[in-house]
């Protein structure tokens, strides 16, 4: 699986003078059932979060507040997605290496996951990831 499977997904945006509202529904707006959600916050401005890939897990990442970059690599090519609005996000399928970086002050990243937490699903070394993909496993 390569970067061609990565998608920016626009979410419904209901505009109102009292404030806007957006929604995410599993298997409707994102292509998987949500089994876990977590958020990343209080990252110092300009900082990054180290990378990893998942063997099975798919994710949808959205900037609820502020901005940050989602840096994706399929072992051959790298692409950067700048997220800075809460009404769209990036779908990251399994077997794509991902890093988050360039956080603005007070940014909040919401991550929706297709799987429950499983430390055995993580590949946390980029060379191991490339070998995993090269060996035809991924």
TrEMBL record:
It holds the Pfam family FdtA. Transmembrane segments: none annotated. Gene3D superfamilies: Jelly Rolls. It comes from the Bacteria. Residues 6-133 form the Sugar 3,4-ketoisomerase QdtA cupin domain. This is FdtA/QdtA family cupin domain-containing protein. It comes from Coprobacter tertius.
